[in-house]
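Box 4.2: Ligand-aware structure prediction
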Amino acid sequence: MKKPSKTINVAERAKQEASLAKELLSPLVGLGLTFNRMVDNLSGKVSATISYPEERRSYSDRFRGAHILTARADGSPRCVACYMCATACPADCIYIEPGEHPDPQIEKVATRFDIDMLRCVFCGFCVEACPEEAIIMSRQTEICEYSREGTIWGMERLMRRPELAEFGVGFRPNDELVESRLSVAPKDKPRIKMPGRVTLKEDVEMIPNVTFDPHKD
Ligand code: SF4
Ligand code: SF4
């Protein structure tokens, strides 16, 4: 026979468990926690804030930051202008123009690829939709510009990413596949330290280069 279900009335249970000692002690426990936290803050044991930009949070490897257009070994974009990313984009902020690729094995190539960074909601749908791993994301959060035009990133800006040395790559759909073939290495230029900054963004030229070995696939 099925056991009757037990009904718990939380209001009644709270009344039964209430006591004068509890009523008096609860605020004191709360005050104690607040006081301890205040002492930790004043003594510098914990810091409530981050001294940005000297200090930065370390974001996850899957952080959805500013995009990267990956390149083939010869430096040309991997993008084949299939429009999958633009179709999946909920913010309608990707603009692509296709062209013919000189290699007859590759049907098309993007001759223009713009992302409006102000409209982008950094959802990563474009990365997930791309069949070529031609678009991935970085952990770059700083995308401020002085003009509206500057917030529309074209192919040059999306492919040459000096900031990656500082921020690193972020969300990409297949860690194993990309990791084994994506080489993101800064050119051999010295990194300069500037007062007030952890690293200098300039002077490092990088092209994320994804090469696919057909014999491995
Ligand atoms: S991250 Fe989302 S909003 Fe931004 S370009 Fe990709 S699909 Fe569009
Ligand atoms: S980035 Fe990927 S999904 Fe977008 S057009 Fe190029 S190949 Fe297609």
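In the box above, the bound molecule is iron/sulfur cluster. The chain has seven helices and seven strands.
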